[in-house]
Protein: ABM domain-containing protein
Organism: Actinoallomurus iriomotensis
Amino acid sequence: MFGLVVRFTCKDQASAEAFDGLVAATVDKIRTDEPGTLVYAVNRVDGEPLQRVFYELYRDRAAFDAHEEQEHTKKFLAERGQYLSATEVDWLTLLTGKGTDG
């Protein structure tokens, strides 16, 4: 499995609302068009109304690469910057867990 955690910080509340709309449209397509994307969870951070944390888990690196090539992902990547003041990415290597076959 292949995964990452991304923390996005939006510029302001209006940007956060617009970002959430962009995310919702993207996740709809991920659900229907990406069988290799096992988990794509978008979270608000308690006490930090401008932050969003994504947890992404893919079957393997090829599934992640396929995700990156999707038109909905390219649209998200092209448009997200206008709403954000910061992006932090942590790449993950699965050691063990429940529901992960690890």
